[in-house]
Amino acid sequence: MVLLGPYISRICFQRFFTWLITSALEAMLGSLYAKIKPRHEDVMCTQQKIPVSVFIIAKDEADRIRDAIDSVKDWVEEVIVVDSGSSDQTVKVAEEAGARVVFNEWPGYGLQKRFGEDCCKNKWLLNIDADERISATLANEIQDVFRCGPDADIYKVHIVDVFPHEKTAKAWAYGYWQYRLYNREHGRFSDSSVHDTVRPEKSATIKKLKGKVDHRSQRSIAFTVDKLNRYSDMQVEDMQRRGRRMSRIRLLTEFPIAFLKSYFIRRAFLYGWWGLVIAHNYAYSRFVRVAKQYEWSKLYNTSN
Fold first, then answer.
1. C-beta of residue 155 within 8 angstroms of C-beta of residue 210
2. Segments of the chain with pLDDT less than 70
3. I want to staple 106 with a disulfide (CB 3.0 to 4.6 A). Which of 84, 192, 198, 242 is the partner?
4. 37, 50, 126, 200 from 144: Cα distances, Å
5. How many separate helices (H) and strands (E) can be counted in the chain?
6. Is the alpha carbon torsion for 36, 164, 175, 129 positive or negative?
7. In sequence order, what are the residues at sequence separation of 6 or more whose Cβ sits closer than 8 angstroms to the Cβ of residue 59?
8. What percentage of the chain carries pLDDT values higher than 90?
9. Is the separation of the CB atoms in 189 and 199 below 8 Å?
């Protein structure tokens, strides 16, 4: 058994490396196919707007809100921006772009999106964030859904990372699936202050759409670090309300595990040196949440 150890380890490493390369190649080929196949569809082929309301929550997003609105305004019936007190030109830019702007004091992510839902006139809703853009492929795909009539109650969309120095997402860009196009009679956003996720009814039918949403979450590294700091505060407050505790051992394990997850599983290594920045930022975001929860327990003398 001792002699078999190195052999087994080598096999495990080979299988992991093969999976890693295969995953990257599949992502690259899938993106290339998506770029080639729908070129003849990139021009919107209908002038009639579909009965969908788009709502966007925003604060101090003057530099990004127009792109978000422009990606949807030509083919949906209404675009609503829920502003929570911007100090820049967000409201002016959004109104000039064709959106209806309403104000609501910030209550948390989930509750703010529920407020946005209530402002919409249609039962079919599409939610995007101010730092997101609906691709032409996804826009045409959504319109096709409504030409024939929706065949599901809720649709998942694939949201992919686009970094400040990029014009569009890389073929291997990390992405995640979210419920964003939905009939509000079959699901609504949760009322969590941190987790802004649509909660489908048990009977709801769900399908996936193939087009992408470009997610430009980073303006700069300084902006990202500030955002992670603010968001981790909200996460810890939410954990305290729910009575959730994390083991202190995670102070030791959280950073390296999160780094490896980002660098290898989320394919950050394919970005070269920039991939190291991505992986470190992700690991920091995970670690600081654990550290702040531990700090809270020390300050308030809890059992953790």
1. no
2. 1-47, 301-304
3. 84
4. 16, 10, 15, 23
5. 8, 10
6. negative
7. 83, 84, 85, 86, 90, 106
8. 77
9. yes
